[in-house]
Fold each of these.
Amino acid sequence: MMRVSGSCWSWLKKQVGLVCVAGLLAVLLLYLSTRSTYRESFLMKDQTSHAVRQLTNKTFAGLEQDDPALVSYVRQLIIPPSTKAYNLTNPTKVHFSQYDQSAFAENTFINGMGGGFFLEMGALDGEDKSNTLYFEKYRGWSGLLIEPDPKLFRTLSGLNRKAYSINAAVSLTNVSALATFRPARGEGRIWENSKKGITVQCFPLYTMLLALTVRQIDFFSLDIEGHEMKVMKALPWEKVKVRVMCIEMNHVPGGVKAVIEFVESRGYTFLGTRKIDAWFGLRELLQETMDLDKYLQQHKIDTLRLKLLSQTYTQYQTSGGLVAEWTAL
C-alpha cells in the first residue's frame, strides 16, 4: 500500500478547501444574479403595466396625441388587413375615384411605384368614390382607411380590403374626444357644439399613425367636408412625411388660398388644383417618382399659384349645401 507523507496530506487538504470555497462562491454569485434578474424583470413588468394603462370608451377622451395609453387603445381598435379574397361590387373596375383622383395621382406623381402606404380620411364604404383602392389592388400598397359612419364602415369591412381600417373620426385637435357626427353618404361630418347626430370617438391623426408605427405616407387623401384645415393644423408635420396629398378644398373656410398658404408653410410644394381638390407634395419624395421641375414648368404651376393667392374668397350656405366662390381681385 502506498503511503502518503504528512506534507502531501496538508497540500491535498488545502486544495480541497480551495475547491469548496470556489464552489460556494459560484453558487452565491448565481443566486445573487438570478435574484437581480428576477427583480429587474418584475420591475420592468410593473413599469410597463403602469405606463401603458388600459383605457375604455369611457376613459379615453382628453389625452394628448402621443400618450402611450391612447396609442395602445387606438391600436386595439384598428382592424388589420383582410386575408380573404376581395368582395367588391365592381371587381373588374380599375379606378374608383369620383373625379379620377387615383388615376391622376398614379399617372402624374406615383408612376408605377409599388409597396407604398396610403391614408384615406373619409373612406366611405371603401369602394364607391375610393381614392385608394386602386393603389391597394393594383400596386400592392397597404394603408389606413378612416370612416366614422358605422353603416358605411360595416360595408367597408365586408369588402375584405387589404388595408388597416378604423371606425372612428379624426380629432380636430391634438387631443382625443367624443364628438357629434351627422351621417350623410359622401357628406357626413363632425358638428361641433351640437347634439343632433350620433356620438363617435375622435382620435388625433398622429395617434393613429403611431399605433401603426407609420412615419411616411405616399398618398394622403383628405376629404372630411370642411374640417380639413383643423386636422392638418393638429398634425406634427416635422414627424411625418407625405409624398403626395389630395385635399378637398371646396368646403374649407378660407378656400384654396388658406390651404395653399398653410401647406406650403409646412415645407410642401403646391402641385395645382383639379376639380374640387388641391394637390401638394414633398419635393424630396416626389423626385424619386417623377421629374418635379419639368412638371411644374410644363403645367405653369407657379402662375396658377399666384393667381389663386390673389383671389378673394366667399362662402355661403344654400339648400344644396355649402358653396364656395373665388373672385379675382
Note: Residues 34-50, 315-329 have pLDDT under 50 and may be disordered.
Amino acid sequence: MAGIEEAEAQLSEIELLTSMFPSQDEFDVKDHLAIAELREYVEGRTDCPPSSRPEFVIQQKIDTQDLKAVTIAISCTYAVDYPNVLPDISVRCPELSRAQQTRLHADMNAYLKENCCGEVCLLSAVEWVKDNAHVYIAKNLAANSLKKVASAAQPVEVFTRLWIYSHHIYNKVKRKNILEWSSDLGLSGFCMPGKPGIVCVEGPQASCEEFWARVKVLTWKRIMIRHREDFPLDGQPGTEEETVTSLRRFPGLRRPCLTPMATEGITWTLDNSTSFSTIKGVGMFFSSTLESRGGSGECSTTRTHA
C-alpha cells in the first residue's frame, strides 16, 4: 500500500508532466478517476489510499537518419510503491518490430534502475527514448532488408511446445504482449493469467525460441520454461504443413494464435483450466507445470517422433 510520500511524489510528477505536455496528443491520461483519488489522498480529504493506479501515455515525434517525424508512444502505469520501484513502462513505435521494442524496453529499464532508483523517472525515460530510439529503428530497418534478401521460407524441421510457468500474470501490458507476439510468430497455445500464470506456445522451434527470448526479459518475480516438447519433422509422411497442423493441440480459428483463457477482470479457475487441458490431450504437462509452485524450477524435455 502506497504511503503519503509516494503519493505526493506521484501527484507532483503528474502535474509536472501536464505542464510540460499540455496537449492531449502529447499527454493522454487514461484514468482520470485514479488521479482524482490520488489528489484527494494527498490533500488529506480522505484517509483511504487510492484504489486504482494512474495510467497515461506520452507521445513524442523524433527524426532518424532515414525517417522523419517518427511517432513514439510511451505508456506508463504507476506501481503502488512508485517511485520506490519502477513503474510499468512500455514503448510503442510503428517503425519497430516486437523484438526491437522488447530490447529497447529492457535496455531502458536497466538504465532507469541504475540511474533513477527511488526517484521519479518518467522524464528520464522520455529523454532516454528520444536519445536512443533511433538505434533500434535503424536495426529494425536493417533486419527488414535482410529478410527481403532471404525471403525464401526455411524448413521448420522441429515442432516445439513450451510450457512456461510464472509466479503470476496480472499485468495488462504483459498479457497483451504475450498474445500479440504469439500471433506475430505464428504460434498457437493458451495464456492463463492469475497466480500462478501459465503460458503454452507451440509451433516452429525457432519461433518458440524467439517468443521465449522476448518474454523472459520482461520484469517477472519468477518465470521459467517448466517443460518442452520437441517433435522432429524429418521423414514424416505428408507435407510439412500437414504435419505441423496435426501436431497443434491449440489451433486458432483463422490462424495460429494464443487463446486468452480469461476475459477482462475474470481469471479462469484451476479446475476449469485443468479441464481445458485435458480436453486438448495435454493434461499431464499442464499438471507438471502447475507443480512448479513448489518444484525445483528445472526444465524437462521430451523429444518425440511425430
Note: Confidence is low (pLDDT under 50) at residues 148-153, 253-257, 261-281, 294-298.
Amino acid sequence: MTLCCDNLGWLSVKCFAHTLQLCIRSAFDKVRSINHTIGSAKKLVTFFQKSVLASNELTQRQKQMGLPHHSLIIDCATRWNSTYKMFDRLIEQRLAVYAVLHSNVVKDSQTKVLDITDKDWEVIQDIVPVLQPLYIATRVLCSEQYPTLSGVMPIMYSLLEIHLKTKDSDSNVVKNFKDEISQDLKRRFKTETEDVCKNIRMTCSFMDPRYKGLPFLTPAQRDVVHREIICYCQKLAQSESQVTGVAADRSVPQHQSAEVNSSTKPGSKLSQDDMAYLLGDFYEQDCSVVVPESPEAELELYLGKANPMQRISVCLVAK
C-alpha cells in the first residue's frame, strides 16, 4: 500500500494503532518473562474453554465468591489488546480459578501443569497497569465517530513522557517492557529529529485548538512546526488566487442533510474522558468559546493564543 501511494504521488499516513500494536508485540517477544507468562495464561484459559466440567465449576465458584459471571478471555496473536483483556480477567477471577484447579474436577497432574506460578501472577499484576493506557490509546484512535489524526502526536508523546516513563518503583520486567516500546516508537516516528515536526500528523495537531500549544515539543521543534504552517498558508494563498469560478461547484446540494446525530458528535463524553486520562496536562477537557467578528479577527485570535509555552485550549467558532 505504501509503495502504491509513493508511485501515485499520494500522501501515505501509517495507522498509528497498528504501529503501536507492532511495538507492543515486539516488546512481548523480547521480554522473556512476559512472553513466558502469556504462554502460561493461554494454556490455562484454553483448558477452561475446552473443559465443560471446569467451565461449569468456574460458574459455581463465581456464585459462591460473589464474583462477576465472566468467562475467561483467550489471547489472540493478531490483537495485542486481547492479552491485556486476558490478564485483566484472570486478575478478576483469580480466586475462582484457583478454587477450580484445586477441586476434584481437575486432576492433580493437570493442576501442576496449569496452575500459574506466583512469579507469573506478579508479572500479570505489574504489567496490566502499563497496558491499560496503551489499550485506551488504541480504542481512542480506532474510533469511527470523530477524526483522530490530530490526536496521534499528543497521544504518542503522552505515552512516552507519562505512561511509559520508568519509575523507581517499577520492577525490572516493567522497566524493560517500557524501554522496549519507547525505543521502538521513537525509532518509527523519528521523535529526535526535525522530521517529526514536518509530517501531516503534527500539522493536524497544531490546527486542532486543543493541542495547538504543542506543549510536548521543545521550543526549537515548535518553531519548525510554525515555519511549516506558514509555508502551507503561503502555498494555499497562491493556489486560491489562481482559482476562479469554482464557488458554485463547492456548494452543498440542498438534499443533503447537515444534521449530525448527537451520539456521533466529536468529543463525546467517552472520548473526552479517555483523552483526558491519556494526555494529562497536555489536554484540557473544557474549552472557552470565543466568537470573532471577522475571519481576519479569527486568524489573529488563533495565532495570538498559540503561545507554545502555554497549555491552553480554545475553541474557535466562526460567526
Note: The two ends are 41 Å apart (CA to CA).
